[in-house]
Amino acid sequence: MPPEKSAAASESGQQANRQSAIPSLDRLLREPALAQLLSRTGRDLVVEEARAEVAQTRQRINRNKAIDVTLDALAQRIEARVASALAMSLQPVFNLTGTTLHTNLGRAPLAEEAIEAMSAVARGATNLEFDLTKGRRGDRDDHVEDWLCRLTGAEAATVVNNNAAAVLLMLNTLANRKEVPVSRGELIEIGGAFRIPEIMRRAGCRLVEVGTTNRTHLRDFSESLSPRTGTLMKVHTSNYVVQGFTAEVSDEDLSALAREHGIPYIVDLGAGSLIDMAALGLPHETTVTETLAKGADLVSFSGDKLLGGPQAGLIAGRADLIAKIKKNPMKRALRVDKVTMAALAATLRLYAQPETLQAKLPTLRLLTRPVADIQAMAERLNPILQATLGDTAQVRITSCTGQIGSGSLPVESLESVALSISPKTTGRGLGGALKRLATSFRDLPMPVLGRISDDCLHFDLRCLEDEAAWLGQLTELRVK
Ligand SMILES: *Cc1c(COP(=O)(O)O)cnc(C)c1O
User: Fold this and answer.
1) Whether 373 and 280 share a structural domain
2) Could you read off the pLDDT of 286-310 as tens digits, one per residue?
3) How far is the CA of 306 from the centre of ligand 1 (A)?
4) Distance 332 CA to ligand 1 centre (A)
5) Structural domain of residue 389, as residue ranges?
6) In this structure, are residues 325 and 154 in contact, taking their beta carbons and an 8 Å threshold?
7) pTM of the shown model
8) CA 196 to CA 168: how far, in whole Å?
């Protein structure tokens, strides 16, 4: 036999030996650790994971990879698989990215009052659509409509799943099979799949582009009107700005033009602040009240941006139009559940007391947090983080600028303070060292997310409120 063939033969013989060393599924499941697991977590899950582990072990043997096939080792790997299948994938994280309303991180942190309201209704039955006074069927919007009207000056209001749904519903209700003129400067895309032209098509509307990217005039709109026009619409360009030689048509002019032609004027406001942000020292963001006062018939905005509530899309404005929207069968497909309704209702009620709003609503509390506070926290945390990282990295306190996020005020930045970590690696290894550092913070029990720039991993401390929890888990940091 040629030497290489005999080597191959003895190799496959060894593989066969190792394969037969794998215990049978029955034998594995009788192993005390797994038998206990079976009774604790249910048979199907454990059997499924045991099968998968055995299959993977066989594959590794076939590929000539080292793997422990003892009962103990197999049982341990199966236990780990079961634990990982049961672990919650959705979990709280520390958002130290510098973007306060981070869409990928779930946007607005909720107020305690909202969280209590959610858990109060979650456990059992509620009067979600039941009028307790009259003893008959009610409307789920009743729980928030009154407060939305008080806070915006609107005649009526309704709630759907998010602002994208609100825009879809407004357009489909008012302009299905009709034309909708929109300025070319406002044909926005917002993270992922929300693009105005696409939403228009899905809502059954024909988009009529008017004006140019940088300048649109009132005459562009009036020339675009036809008997087929369903509504005029303005889209708040929330995640970019057009600067320089620009012109846009005001709400007042658009609403007057719409009224002349007997059609509504609607505004997708996006962030939709309910209060004057400038009074809190933040950059001014057009409020819902202002937009309605300037003549908009309907305004739509998100619940989880500057408003600081749960994910929701709110529509406020003329009573007859809101009534039409509520009759659209699409409304039924886009409605929110009792938990969202409870959180929104509780959040809106916080606005009733302007004196305590900033302290109670986390979004406003974080956005208005004094830089001196953040600096003081950085000074407390810096030596502890440095001691944890030892001589593998250097930690410095740096000034940085964060963002409100979620497309609000894209160019305004929030002055803040960061802990900036630079690994003590230079040259070509630096990128890898930064990535490993970021990974080790993501691996903590409550993952910590920062931002890598200028050869540092930055943790903007604006959104860190639970300092003790953050410090408490540092002992578990393992930088590879
Ligand atoms: C954020 C935003 C949307 C999308 O709102 P969601 O609540 O995320 O669905 C739509 N239009 C504008 C102008 C926005 O800023």
Assistant:
1) no
2) 999 999 999 999 999 999 999 999 9
3) 11
4) 20
5) 94-101+367-476
6) no
7) 0.92
8) 10
